[in-house]
Amino acid sequence: MWLPGFRRVRARLRAPLLASAWAATCLGVGLRSLAGEGGAGAVALPPTALEFAGLTHYAAANRALPPPAPGEHRVVFIGDSITEAWGDVARDYFARRDRINRGIGGQATPQMLLRFRQDVIALKPAAVHILAGTNDVAGNVGPMDLETIESNLASMAELARANGIAVVLGSVLPASEFPWRRGLEPGPKILALNDWLAAYARQRDFVFVDYYAAMTDGALGMRAALALDGVHPSPEGYRVMLPLAEAGIAAALRQGTQRR
């Protein structure tokens, strides 16, 4: 069910791109101050390691989550704001006991890798859905080459497999421009990253879900009907993604059963 809760996400993403507020949202971290909140002469401090990785973001939810029931095929979705907003749009889907959303807006792959053990492995899922890379290409945590992004994605996938978790790798969604970081022309880099993801999934026998092919406008961007701001899917975009995700999850779970 696609609920009005998505309006909050839409409003946030369409808010005026005031530099400081937008940077904090996109980077997924806040700035601390030596003088306290709003104090005179405040000096901004870099985020701590806990803040950088978002290790406290889902800590309470993880503690409250019971172990999977016998026969339950729990799936954890890890990602950035595209995954997090999916939870707002498809509330009924993620209200299911066996579908756990662990998206954090603004995050890039280094941050997801740092929290992968507590937000994925410790939850004992049968499968993980990894949808990441947009914010790496945007440079949210600094400039990052393709090899580094690929290494982080591979590390998450291989950590999952080493712990008996089936893997679904989602393609990066099409984007020809980032509203918070204009002028990067990300389209070609996204294409190259997706080519690598598809080849890596074939080589390592992971499931690859090609959201890009289903959502592209053919000119390196996302189809207007499926996009909220050119980067984040609209409710219609998530309707396109959900059956693709479920088909990928079913395939990964079958692989997992065969491996045991």
Quick overview:
This protein is α/β, with parallel strands linked by helices. Helix content is 47%, strand content 10%.
Question: Any descriptors?
Answer:
single chain, 5-stranded parallel beta sheet, Rossmann fold, two-stranded antiparallel ribbon, alpha/beta, 260 residues
Describe this structure in words.
The longest helix has 25 residues, at 235-259. The two termini are 34 Å apart. Helix content is 47%, strand content 10%. It has one domain (48-259): 3-Layer(aba) Sandwich (Rossmann fold). It has helices spanning 6-14, 19-27, 49-53, 59-64, 81-89, 91-94, 109-114, 116-119, 134-138, 146-162, 187-204, 211-215, 235-259; strands at residues 32-33, 44-45, 75-79, 99-103, 127-131, 166-170, 207-209. β6 (166-170), α11 and β7 form a beta-alpha-beta unit. The strands form two sheets. Strands 4-3-5-6-7 form a five-stranded parallel β-sheet, sandwiched between helices. A two-stranded antiparallel sheet has the order 1-2. The model is unreliable at 1-38 (pLDDT under 50). It has 260 residues and is of the alpha/beta class.
Strand/helix succession: HHEEHHEHHEHHEHHEHEHH
Low-pLDDT runs: 1-38
**Average residue-wise pLDDT:** 87
Q: Provide the CATH architecture.
A: 3-Layer(aba) Sandwich
CATH-defined fold name? Rossmann fold
Strand ordering within the main sheet: 4-3-5-6-7
Strand content: 5-15%
Residues in helices, as a percent range = 40-55%
Number of domains: 1
Q: Major sheet, described briefly?
A: 5 strands, parallel
For the CA atoms, what is the radius of gyration? 18 Å
Q: Ends: how far apart?
A: 34 Å
CATH class annotation: Alpha Beta
Shape category: globular
- Count the E strands: 7
CATH superfamily: SGNH hydrolase
Count of DSSP helices?
A: 13
Structural class: alpha/beta
